Amino acid sequence: MLDSNFTRDFIEVMESMKLFDIHKYLIYNVNNPSELKFVDSNKVIVARYNTKEFHNAIGDIKSYKRIFIHFLSVEMCKFLNKLPALDNIYWIFWGADFYSPPSCFFDFLYDKHTQEYMKKYMFNRGQAVNIPSFILNNFVSKKILLFRDKKLYSIKAKAISKVSYFLHFNKYDYDIVKSFFKTDMKFLPFRYGHVEFNDSDILFPEIMNDLKNKYSLTLYKIIFVGNSGNPTNNHLDLFYLLKNLNIKEKFKIICPLSYGNEKYIDFIIKKGKEFFGDDFIAITQYLDKDIYNNLIACSDIMIMYHNRTQGVGNINIALHAGKKVFLKKENTTYKLYKDLDLKIFNTEHDLMNNDIFDELTDEDKANNKKIIKDVFSAETQKENLYFILSNH
User: Fold this and answer.
1) Each residue of 167-212: pLDDT tens digit?
2) Is the dihedral of CA 348, 349, 354, 357 positive or negative?
3) Phi, psi of 4, deg, nearest 5
4) Helix, strand, coil content of the chain in percent (nearest 5)
5) Residue 5's pLDDT band (boundaries 50, 70, 90)?
């Protein structure tokens, strides 16, 4: 697994459940325990991928009842491809691990204006593939990029063919993976985290008032946009769309950009200011969880312009807080949430109406809140884990 907030919470839940005898957690993307930024557990082994320490930590691969791959990185694809035939490989799907290399999913992931940015500033300068920029300025560069990404794609295809189980909360993503790659893996419901709501709720009036004063939100409608500084947010395309809607109410945009590609983040901040001036608020620092959640709750609407599953935690917070959420119709999260009977809106048609800032009815708010709490609860998360560890 990677050192991340997702795996940190996962380890805590696994250990709290006290299921079976021993779980071994191997983090391979840092050199030693002192470099860990998120995970804090004495159960963790740290060993950089493909080192002697890495292989010694694993030992006999056939001795394990289950092998879980958290994020199917290039390293993990290569690792799987070296293994003998096994029937106990579990892939915990993140999203970004599947839609990589991005050039192989270019038309799927990015909309028109984001594609133009990617072609001009990222792929042509080697940032996506770590090729020196002086190489990537001619026709040959595109051939190099295409060759490299096709090779990575074939490595991934082989690795996915060796996976036994696909772990994720959204079966529509499983269907997409199967449409791209030949695989016999089976789907198992899985959630990394859960929505940490209790009876007293997560909203704190004093925090919300402080945020409204800090960002001068009181006299405006607030649109919360995206979840990160990743181009898959299609920020620029959404900016053009919002600008052309001729929204009558005064509004501000809150745009979280605390992580992602630095040059892309700088670009989006620049374009956001060009489009909306001081009404564009970029959040470039990590915020305390309670502060971040209440910032979402300060918003009137949330718009996620991804073409793939992304920012689900943010979406769940907004829905639980009674906010209107707009997603693309083809986004698998939108499809799943419609199946769950959540009151959710699409960007293709619902954003074109004059009532985008109208609040949900009390009934819709209550229904959304109940569904989110039921589907993404700690109990459901543990039930999924227990089922996986008891039956497969």
Assistant:
1) 999 999 999 999 999 999 999 999 887 666 554 456 677 787 888 8
2) negative
3) -155, 165
4) 50, 10, 40
5) confident
Residue for token digits 């993503």? 173
- Find all residues with CB under 8 Å of 54, minimum gap 6, and list them: 26, 28, 47, 48
The letter for the amino acid at 373 is K
Query: How far lies 114's CA from each of 237, 238, 268, 290, 306, in Å?
Result: 7, 10, 10, 31, 11
pLDDT at residue 218 in the model? 81
- For residue 113, give the nearest of 239, 228, 224, 225 by alpha carbon: 239
CATH number assigned to the domain covering 205-375? 3.40.50.2000
Amino acid at 386: Y
pLDDT confidence of residue 7 = 92
pLDDT in tens, 26-49: 999 999 999 999 999 888 999 999
Long-range contacts of 265-269 (CB under 8 A, 24+ apart): 265/229, 267/117, 267/121, 268/229, 268/235, 268/236
Boundaries of every domain in the chain = 60-100+148-194+381-391, 205-375
pLDDT in tens, 365-384: 999 999 998 898 888 888 99
What is residue 381's DSSP assignment?
H
C-beta pairs of 261-264 under 8 Å, 24+ apart in sequence: 261/122, 261/127, 261/229, 261/230, 261/231, 262/229, 263/121, 263/122, 263/127, 264/117, 264/121, 264/122, 264/229, 264/230, 264/231
Prediction pTM value:
0.87
Instruction: Report the alpha-carbon distance of residue 391 to residue 52 in Å, rounded.
Output: 34
